[in-house]
Amino acid sequence: VIASHSSCRHFTPGFERNMGDAEIVRLKENGGVIQINFGSSFVTQESQEKENKNRERIMAYAKENGLKRGDEKLKSYWEKVSKENPIYADI
Hints:
Elements: E1 2-6, H1 21-29, E2 33-36, H2 40-43, H3 45-64, H4 72-84
């Protein structure tokens, strides 16, 4: 058994994609392994919240301006928001 693209819910409470302690123990008991994903939103709640806020801000901007994914104006705004509000975890 393998749990891929997961991490430990201990670090990101409420992020259901990550595994809880009891699930990790059961995985071990069944000879399974877990692939720890070190993407920032998988390892800290703070990064996950920042990413969600950035996404909400960008989606609101897209809606207000009638923009769709791939529009250059939206790409530029995405880059601006990401630069002003970095989400990366430092672990």
